[in-house]
Amino acid sequence: MMPLTLVNEGEENVIKRIGGKPEVKKHLEDLGFVAGGTVTVVTTLNGNVIVNVKEARIAISREMAQKIMV
Fold first, then answer.
1. Which of 31, 35, 53, 58 has the fewest Cβ atoms nearer than 10 Å?
2. How confident is the model at residue 46 (pLDDT cuts 50, 70, 90)?
3. Measured CA angle at 51 (ends 46, 56), to 5 deg
4. For residues 11 and 41, is the Cβ–Cβ distance under 8 A?
5. Quick check: helix, strand or coil at residue 29?
6. Among 27, 10, 9, which residue's Cα sits nearest to residue 68?
7. What are phi and psi of 17, to 5 degrees?
């Protein structure tokens, strides 16, 4: 298991766990990041990560991406 920030671009991964405070977990869940779901890193810009999750492209901060374990 590793944080989303260490994943190679274009690689599809299964989300294993979401860390952080309850409000952070809820926010990520609302965006579509749920355990068992798939996520693909599109690109990394200035430490921020752009991902495809549930057929949507979403930009999240490096701090948020580190809470998503794949």
1. 35
2. confident
3. 135
4. yes
5. helix
6. 27
7. -160, 150
Q: Please, what is the average pLDDT of the chain? A: 94
Task: For residues 15-27, give the mean pLDDT.
Answer: 94
- Contact indicator for 51, 60 with CB cutoff of 8 Å: yes
Long-range own/partner contacts, residues 13-22 (CB < 8 A, 24 or more apart): 13/38, 13/39, 13/40, 13/70, 14/38, 14/39, 14/70, 15/39, 15/68, 15/69, 15/70, 16/69, 16/70, 17/69, 18/67, 18/68, 18/69, 19/67, 19/68, 19/69, 20/67
Longest dimension (CA), the chain: 29
Tokens 């590793």 identify what position?
2
pTM of the model: 0.90
